[in-house]
Amino acid sequence: MSATHLLRVEAIRELMAENGWDAVIVTGTDPHCSEYPAPRWKQVEWVSGFTGEAGDLVITMDHAGLWTDTRYFIQALDQLQGSGIELHKLRVPEQVTIPEWLAAKYPEGAVVAVDSLCQSYDAISELSAMTVVGRPDMLSGLWEGRPGIPCTPIETVGEDQVGESRADKINWLRKFLLRNECDAIFLTSLDEIAWTLNVRASDIEYNPYVISYLFVSQESVKWFVLKADAEDADSDTADSFEDIAADEIEICGYDAIASALVGTMTPQDRIFVDPSTLNYEVGSLIVETYGEENVVFGQSPVVLRKAVKNEVEISAMREAHFEDGVAMEKFLYWLEQEVSQRVVTEWEASVKLSSLRAEIPGYRGDSFENISAYGPNAALPHYCTPEIGSAEIQRHGLYLVDSGGQYLFGTTDITRTVPMGPCTPLEKEDYTLVLRGMIELAMAVFPAGTAGCQVDAVARMPLWRAHRSFGHGTGHGVGFYLGVHEGPQDIRQNFNKQPLLPGMIQSDEPGLYREGLHGIRHENVILCKESAENEFGRFLEFETLTLCHIDTDPVERELMSQEELDWLNAYNERVYETIGPALNPEMRRWLRNKTAMIL
Predict the structure, then answer these.
(1) Largest interatomic CA distance in the chain
(2) What's the rounded Cα separation, in Å, for the pair 302 and 446?
(3) pTM for the complete prediction?
(4) CATH architecture of 308-594
């Protein structure tokens, strides 16, 4: 496909020449700054062939570059071959960001064109030295057969499922506006809107979102959504619209934002927006309409509120991890039996795992594309398993599977690295060191007010002591029947001042990757909760929610402390006691053997 992508880059250059642009930035997101865009907005993939979830392109008359982070370096180098597009590395000490690169190339400033629907208002502010031209849907004239905006059935999740009604959430937003002397808030992030309105859909694969905008003032609530005509909607959507309208929420067309914003508020009103998720096109309209002095920029209050799960959500997430754990154990049993008898490919294993999750009542799909990777393929942290020509899982070495499910009662994310037979000494050593890091974080106790970046080193220390490391984050927030990745908290080296709070749910997933050999990642989902309070203050700890055994065959016992071994033995015993009764006798015997104590 490299010739095709070369032609597409040249077509963009022709567009640049026609309009007098020095550079074009193509982002890998959508009008809501989503991590995972719908096919319509996979513009980076269309131009370059790069399929990673994080990547932006810059095209000038003499250069084309892709900016992405450590998770995708190997993948990018492979997919960009022959395209003429150069890899620019992010999250490395010598990184040069897009604004820095443009400023160095054009010290006198340049005319930079962007798709203003798919570039955040925040990102444009970083291009202050440039003249920015916003062109909505800039590539539509070049992209023959470009997909439309998706529009899938909408369902409502009840207060009994999520612990709080949409009316209560809207009232909470209105109190936020009073405290901050604002008259309205405009929400643009799809997970925030889904959380606020207690609605779900499948407009974006793996993410139960409705593509929409939400406006909340003291007097009114307007929801801008594509399927706005209830008469033409499916029955589920019509029922959801009826429920929403009963809460005095006006349902408007997705494209009616401009007229509604202008007609709803007076020029003196103050409106709150989050510039990190507000696209430049709509942001410019808001600033032009109300004046910059009446636009209050800040992090949306919904981000933190939805990250701290209530007791209903926490209880349901425990149920989700139990059901998911049963599916995982069935899969791992199947995998071991099948590989011992016949050829099994990575793709077949991935399909089998999804089919086992699909048997769970309340299943709404996978929470992201399964990473099913054997041997060297697992060295790509975000390996995309091909349907055609996927690798065979051999009877030796390590197989990595990173996967998760979306359920009416929660979201899961789990990685297991599985020995398929004899392992090399290096594979065993790496496996053990990564496992130690995961266990150390799971056992961490820390003072209230501690941020994720402050505990990140706990998970990395066993690897650092052996002069090994990994480039991705150690942990990300996990939504409740929402995105598998959410903030504001994370556990990574990058500075993030957000403290970890009781009720926050995040992943614990250190890893290690040796190009051409193997990749290892152990991942559980953990809940932050109260630990103790004394004269030294409040302390927090983690509860592991994930329930699936950790294979001890590759563990090098002498590398582990007794405390780590005790944790591992206790965890595997809990998995057996909890999951075992849900398995048939043969699987239960197999699991008993897999969870035998290391002495």
Answers:
(1) 73
(2) 26
(3) 0.93
(4) Alpha-Beta Complex (3.90)
